[in-house]
């Protein structure tokens, strides 16, 4: 049932029938009179993996090439390959799916006609309304079918996270559409479905969308039985080896049913820009596209009111500006765009904290026909001025903002790809704690709610659409559909996301193979950049380059130069002599000389690697080194990378080396570090693991040491000092055990058991203080940091005793009972004196009592193949995480307990109740 907040049904069947008849008669009138409804379809779904027997490819979107070579463990900057193109010689569904993208294809001649005949699929049990799906798994959305595992320990699956994301999945539910909706349009709005979705209603193919990261809509109207139950079935078909990371699988974002009058604001039909911004006033330019889905021309009026939003996103007081009604005609089956302007006096600007505030506004657009309100549509936006200055970089509202950015993939660790607002918000909060002010959405359109968060929290965003174009990085990645879908996918992202003030730059690709193709590759880039310019002339375009050089045609196609790793130079150390992989000298000066008028920055820097809390010896004396067994970088036997934070992928650099490069080239606008949070898949350099080593924060959300190195630079006013390694080394008595210190100060003195190990000052282009000759003895390390000669911050680190007790700490002790809200609970292993043991690895067991459930556990260890839902988890480097969700609709006190052999249990209470 869809909860529409309508008045209850009449009691008797006869009265019910009479009401239906009346509604049918009045339907056209009512249809025109009721503004839009948007209903979240999160419950009532049944899910099943695999097709019914005997389908034999009849439901395939298209035929796919054979996988001849497995791509697991391929170096990330390996040159992409030529596509293998094959023509289907048997019927496939593609001709019926392609028209779903028509709205996003500019040239009418290029749009796709739906075949007259129904697709020749025959009788498919799962499509029938009378199919009994009661034995299917009941699920709520968002849903990721693979995240519960189990992990696949053996075989070439590391790249995609060792979780079974590929294959077929079906979702079914019924939709009760009232007779009163007759004459209205009913759309299914899908935030994202992984992947190759086909949507069926009452056994008929409605449409679909291959790319798993985009949001899309299908029009259910022609297939609906009004006044009855409608059987919805969605089939997804994830190709194997389709990604360089974990894609997830399923309806992993929100799905809505949107019902409108036949004349209504089009999908993503508003476009707000703020061409003139000053402290005194702002001009807001608004374009509204209105669709007329009837077969007669109509006349409509559109008017818009603007409201300021408070910090909770609620409109404050009276409208601050108004665009009076404009009337216009719309042809039958067509649309019209109405453009107009308003002036907002003393605007509260949107800008990144801490120096600015992310203020937001709301535009409420009303569509009228014959003086009746037929649609009401809301658009959130911000008023800000962004200038791109080749000498300084990004200037927001007149203030130069150095980009202290990170790259983020879409998964939420143990929760997988299924979007969760609180989990995403927590990630952003942790990143903000480090001083991050910018996010690159690597390498695909994010969940729309993530951009609402970045708007509200004031992050600057690079919105990126593709990781590959025509050439492939993995055998069955997006290149398979690029020729047919790139225009629709790109325009869909642009129209969906262009009103977000946080988005400052559009990226049309990441390290694409077309960089290697001279003019031909540049032409494809130019075509994509032109699409961006058509849809949004206010923001620049870019594509990230790890190979194209300044003198090649490719970089000239874009407005902003985005370099991956090239700025610092790639594989320049002597040990890479003779290697056939990419080798590039430091490249910012070359690009600067060739493009003196373009802003440039490192869209991927570092790709430094580490396992949280793991320290290997010897420690390289270099500022940056690749991970090798012999240099203290890695241990291939245990698949751990040292957390001295000096080691990187072969084509990358340590954080320190990147900082030095940026400081030597002050025209570079900043960096986006690869990467913020560890993510599932791509576990370079150890592909038998499940998750990456490149995050500054591990998969569970626990900061690695590197977090503090960035914090020291990005939050210079925060007095802080951080010491590594841990100080529990019973087997290193008297052995040299380097101590490194990260501080926002400029100098520090280190004491071991009260004895000074010397006072050190950061030199030019040095970002850490190193005491590389400390001989280990147990006891206390203490560091006193200074800034400008004055005491600035202090820290101590002690040798701890044996594990004795467990302590729990919740990030939030009240959670809402909407079935989505979460509490993230950190477990620490303590000694008898209550000191956290930074190298403890005890096995613990979580238990939840009361109106909540344990959703997942983790510890941030990339090698841990214990399934995420497991209540048992080994602590890793002293920590473990439990994720707890309030049960929908329930309230009360929840007790979370953690126990372990020989340890005093830890316990805490949470309150579950109405979301606040
Ligand atoms: C880059 C690539 C990223 C990621 C990274 C890992 O080359 O663009 O997606 O793979 O390497 O180091």
User: How many beta-strand segments?
Assistant: 48
Described by strand count, sense and barrel closure, the largest sheet is: 8 strands, parallel, barrel
Instruction: Describe the oligomeric state of these chains in a short phrase.
Output: single chain
Give the strand content.
Answer: 25-35%
Number of helices: 9
Q: Please report the first level of CATH classification, the CATH class of the largest domain.
A: Alpha Beta
CATH architecture of the largest domain: Alpha-Beta Barrel
* Spatial ordering of strands, largest sheet: 21-22-23-24-25-26-27-32
What general form does the structure show? globular
Give the helix proportion (percent range).
Answer: 10-25%
The tally of domains stands at 7
Low-pLDDT parts are 1-33
Which whole number gives the mean pLDDT?
95
User: What structural category do the secondary elements indicate?
Assistant: mainly beta
Instruction: Determine the CATH superfamily of the largest domain.
Output: Glycosidases
Q: Give the N-terminus to C-terminus distance in angstroms.
A: 26 Å
Bound chemical compounds: beta-D-galactopyranose
At the third CATH level, what is the topology name of the largest domain?
Answer: TIM Barrel
Radius of gyration: 28 Å
């Amino acid at each position: 049932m869809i909860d529409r907040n309508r008045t209850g049904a009449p009691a008797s069947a006869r009265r019910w029938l009479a009401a239906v008849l009346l509604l049918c008669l009045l339907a056209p009138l009512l249809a025109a009179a009721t503004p839009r409804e948007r209903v979240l379809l999160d419950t009532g779904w049944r899910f099943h993996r695999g097709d019914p027997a005997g389908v034999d490819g009849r439901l395939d979107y298209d035929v796919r090439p054979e996988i001849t070579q497995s791509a697991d463990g391929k170096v990330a900057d390996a040159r992409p390959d030529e596509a293998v193109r094959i023509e289907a010689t048997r019927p496939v569904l593609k001709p019926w799916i392609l028209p779903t993208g028509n709205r996003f294809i500019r040239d009418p001649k290029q749009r796709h006609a739906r075949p007259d005949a129904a697709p020749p699929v025959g009788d498919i049990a799962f499509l029938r309304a009378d199919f009994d799906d009661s034995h299917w798994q009941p699920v709520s959305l968002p849903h990721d079918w693979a995240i519960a595992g189990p992990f696949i320990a053996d075989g070439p699956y590391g790249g995609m996270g060792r979780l079974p994301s590929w294959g077929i999945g079906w979702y079914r539910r019924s939709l009760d559409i009232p007779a009163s909706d007759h004459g209205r349009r009913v759309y299914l709005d899908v935030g994202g479905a992984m992947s190759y979705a086909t949507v069926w209603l009452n056994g008929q193919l409605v449409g679909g969308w291959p790319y798993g990261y985009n949001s899309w809509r299908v029009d259910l109207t022609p297939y609906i039985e009004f006044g009855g139950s409608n059987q919805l079935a969605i089939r997804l078909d994830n190709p194997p080896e389709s990604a360089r990371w974990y894609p997830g699988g399923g309806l992993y974002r929100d799905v809505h049913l949107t019902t409108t009058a036949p004349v209504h604001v089009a999908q993503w039909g508003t476009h707000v820009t703020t061409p003139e911004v000053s402290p005194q006033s702002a001009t807001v330019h608004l374009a509204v596209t209105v669709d007329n889905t009837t077969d007669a021309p109509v006349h409509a009026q559109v008017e818009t009111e603007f409201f300021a939003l408070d910090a909770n996103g609620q409109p404050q007081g009276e409208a601050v500006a108004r665009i009076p009604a404009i009337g216009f005609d719309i042809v039958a089956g067509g649309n019209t765009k109405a453009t107009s302007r308003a002036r907002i006096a003393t605007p509260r600007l949107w800008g990144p904290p801490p120096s600015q505030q992310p203020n937001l506004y709301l535009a409420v657009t009303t569509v009228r026909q014959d003086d009746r309100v037929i649609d009401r549509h809301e658009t959130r936006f911000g008023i800000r001025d962004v200038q791109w200055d080749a000498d300084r970089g990004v200037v927001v509202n007149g203030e130069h903002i150095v980009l202290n950015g990170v790259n983020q993939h879409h998964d939420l660790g143990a929760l997988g790809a299924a979007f969760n607002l609180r989990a995403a918000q927590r990630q952003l909060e942790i990143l903000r704690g480090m001083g991050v002010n910018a996010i690159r959405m690597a390498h695909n359109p994010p969940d729309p709610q993530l951009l609402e968060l970045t708007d509200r929290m004031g992050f600057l965003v690079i919105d990126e659409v593709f990781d590959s174009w025509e050439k492939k990085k993995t055998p069955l990645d997006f290149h398979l559909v690029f020729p047919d879908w790139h225009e629709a996918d790109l325009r869909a992202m642009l129209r969906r996301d262009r009103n977000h003030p946080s988005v400052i730059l559009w990226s049309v690709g990441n390290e694409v193979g077309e960089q290697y193709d001279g003019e031909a590759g540049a032409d494809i880039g130019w075509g994509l950049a032109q699409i961006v310019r058509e849809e949004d002339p206010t923001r620049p375009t870019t594509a990230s380059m790890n190979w194209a050089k300044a003198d090649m045609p490719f970089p000239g196609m874009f407005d902003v130069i985005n370099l991956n790793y090239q700025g610092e130079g790639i594989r320049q150390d002597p040990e890479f002599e003779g290697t056939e992989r990419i080798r590039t000298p430091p490249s910012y000066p070359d690009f600067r000389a060739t493009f003196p008028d373009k802003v440039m920055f490192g869209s991927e820097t570092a790709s430094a690697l580490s396992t949280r809390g793991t320290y290997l010896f010897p420690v390289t004396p270099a500022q940056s080194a690749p991970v090798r067994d012999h240099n203290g970088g890695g241990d291939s036997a245990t698949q751990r990378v040292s957390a001295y934070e000096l080691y990187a992928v072969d084509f990358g650099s340590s954080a320190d080396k990147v900082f030095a490069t940026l400081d030597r080239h002050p025209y570079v606008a900043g960096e986006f570090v690869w990467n913020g949070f560890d993510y599932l898949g791509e576990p370079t350099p150890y592909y038998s693991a499940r998750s990456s080593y490149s995050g500054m924060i591990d998969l569970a959300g626990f900061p690695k040491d590197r977090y503090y190195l960035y914090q020291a630079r990005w939050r210079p006013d925060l007095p802080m000092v951080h010491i590594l390694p841990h100080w529990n080394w019973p087997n290193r008595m008297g052995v040299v055990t380097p101590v490194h210190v990260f501080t926002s100060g400029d100098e520090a003195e280190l004491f071991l058991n009260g004895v000074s190990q010397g006072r050190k000052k950061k030199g030019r282009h040095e970002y850490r203080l190193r005491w590389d000759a400390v001989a280990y003895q147990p006891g206390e390390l203490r560091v006193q940091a200074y800034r400008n000669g004055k005491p600035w911050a202090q820290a101590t680190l002690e040798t701890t005793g044996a594990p004795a007790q467990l302590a729990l700490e919740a990030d939030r002790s009240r959670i809402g009972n909407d079935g989505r809200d979460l509490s993230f609970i950190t477990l620490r292993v303590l000694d008898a004196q209550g000191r956290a043991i930074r190298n403890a690895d005890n096995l613990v067991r979580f238990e939840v009592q009361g109106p909540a459930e344990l959703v997942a556990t983790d510890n941030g260890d990339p090698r841990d193949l214990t399934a995420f839902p497991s209540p048992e988890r080994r602590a890793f480097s002293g920590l473990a995480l439990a994720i707890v969700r309030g049960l929908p609709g329930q309230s009360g006190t929840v007790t979370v307990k953690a126990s372990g052999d020989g340890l005093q249990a830890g316990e805490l209470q949470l309150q579950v109740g109405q979301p606040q």
